[in-house]
Structure formats: structure tokens, C-alpha cells
Amino acid sequence: MTTILGLVTTRYHGLGKTILATATAWRAAQMLHEELGVEARAVDSLLARARTDRTVLDCNTVLLVDEAGQIGSRAMHSLLTLARERGAKVVLVGDRPSFRRSPPDRPCACWPRSAFRPGSQPSCASARPTP
Question: For the chain, N or C: smaller number of CB within 10 Å?
């Protein structure tokens, strides 16, 4: 997965975008930072910071949400709402099993199988990002 995220990150950087990565846990966020060389935060930390600092997410930001199937519905709703309000692009990343077996409080549990086909919505991971 890191190889794909590296390609996505490189492509968006080439388009002049700011990449911000997030994951459910600090440790996972730290790994994203180390492997991709981008700013990364745990979801709760990102949400808290974004509420007080409008520069965290803007129309030039691409938000990579790693292991999206593991994020609770309230946190996911907050992330997506914030991104929509600020004009940021969101790329949801995760493996198929974690999306399909998500517990009831996980937003991805109800996504249809078509959501996992390349180019379909929502975008779970793609080596061909759209600007």
C-alpha cells in the first residue's frame, strides 16, 4: 500500500498540492510521515487542530485517510464535512477486508462492492489521482 501512496503523494505534489495524511492512531500516522515524507496526524488530533486553525485544510490540500475502514462514523463524518467545507480533496485508503467487515460504527460497512473498483466512488486508493 505504501508504494501506491508514494505514487499518489508524488503526483499530487507535482500538481502543487499539499498532502496531509491521517490515521486512527499516532503510531500509524508517524509511519505515514516517515514513509511518505508528509505531515501526518492521528484523526482526533487533526480534527482538534483543524477546528482552531483554518490553514490546516484548504482547497489546495489532499487528505490521505489511511485505514479508513477503521475510523468511526462520527470521526469520518467530521473529516468529510471539514474537507467539504474547506474544499480539500479526500483520498480514502484501506484494504478490502477491513472495509467489508467493518463494525456497525464504521462508515464503510455499507459501501457497495462497486466502491472498490478503480475509478469508482469513493476512491479507496488509486495510482492515478485526479486534480
Answer: C
**Element containing residue 6 per DSSP (H, E):** helix 2-14
Q: Where are the beta strands (DSSP E) in 59-128?
A: 61-65, 89-92
Domain residue ranges in the chain: 2-116
The pLDDT tens digits for 82-106 are 999 999 999 988 876 555 554 455 5
Q: What is the pLDDT of residues 105-122, one digit of tens each?
A: 555 544 444 444 444 343
Which CATH architecture best describes the domain 2-116? 3-Layer(aba) Sandwich (3.40)
Residues in contact with 23: Cβ distance below 8 Å, sequence separation at least 6, in sequence order: 29, 31, 32, 40, 42, 43, 65, 66, 67
